[in-house]
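COMPLEX REQUEST
Ligand: iron/sulfur cluster
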Amino acid sequence: MAHVVLCRVLEYDPILLHSALSGAFRLLDAQSCFQPGENILIKPNLLSAVNPDRAVTPHPAVFSALAQVLSSLDLKLSYGDSPAMSQPAAAARMAGLTDIADRMGVAQADFSTSASVRFNQGVHLKEAPIATGVLAADGLVNLCKLKTHALTGMTGAVKNLYGIIVGPRKAQLHVQFPDLQSFAHMLSDLNRQFAPRLVVMDAIMAMEGNGPMNGKPRPCGWLIIGLDPVAVDAVGAVIMGYDPGDLLVLKTAQKAGLGQADPETIRITLLDAVTGETTGQGSLKEFSGQLEIPDFVRPAVSRSLMTLATTVAGPLIKRHVMERPAIRSSVCTRCGQCVKACPVDPKALTQKLADAVPAYQYDRCIRCYCCQEICPVGAIVVEPAWPGRLLARKLKG
Ligand code: SF4
Ligand code: SF4
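STATUS: Structure written out below.
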């Protein structure tokens, strides 16, 4: 049974965060996952160069508390991530991590260069360029943020590892693994080869709505810590109101033996960060009602349609039935970044004139949502096609 510790933390208070993490380390015996002198990389989710108030990246106070607790284990720490479009150093600076890391002697890992890695145990992913900073480390600590995600429903620990693949190659992998099931297999292979020693999820201020980049910050008040990334994500999924078994990424990771997504096989401990006392214990299933935020705004998960889109009827389904990205022209600044981000060839999104709103060719679109993720002003939303909604309901029933 997986074990996940949840601490009620309503504000990014440094003392409370340090106490919460120290208590969770004790309960999980997390210190035994590390040997003194090891090089450990903290891998925060730094999707883009944005201010931490937008809840796109883990809060710097969580990073600071985590680095303090890990430093006390006599480890050599580094940190880094490869954002989709921004430069790694710029993303870290905007997220508020650089000053903290410099002060604490946590080195910025090299996420600008990469080396090709063979995935000998990879079932679907056989080779990928992995950031040099990851390869230089003895192990990873996964510092993720609880957010909605247009493609996967949610992003947390399992999806966070996608950032160890450097820059533009991430977009190409969307083409190599064009539907959600194959993408989920690829994420499982990544998580098998680079399994984190520990996972810390910042769900104190999560993101709902048009995530992972342009959603709204949503206070949830939980710091979630575990050794099993799938189980930590399952807890986040329950908070958002999902059944973790409906999320293909989690279901696939569990099937691949990477962790537990079933709420009956995840043991929860509630920890009072102030007193250090345990205030509750039981399975995630038992705690679901208490944890779920009923009005959390999350994307619909239309698995059946994603699967149908890989059949011969795919182009028709993609054009007329499936949910799809759509540009709100009143918000669009015509910057063209979404066109650059589109990984398919020929592109499924084109901008005929520099001052025109880009236009979609939905039959070419693989629904990777790179365009929606990258738009700096949140002009791209996921639009439910009404025939698709009807069909999804029928397939579900
Ligand atoms: S990235 Fe956003 S703002 Fe820029 S052209 Fe595309 S939709 Fe418009
Ligand atoms: S148009 Fe957007 S969702 Fe479609 S393939 Fe291109 S980037 Fe992906």
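REMARKS: The chain has a mean pLDDT of 93. Residues 14-28 form the longest helix (15 residues).
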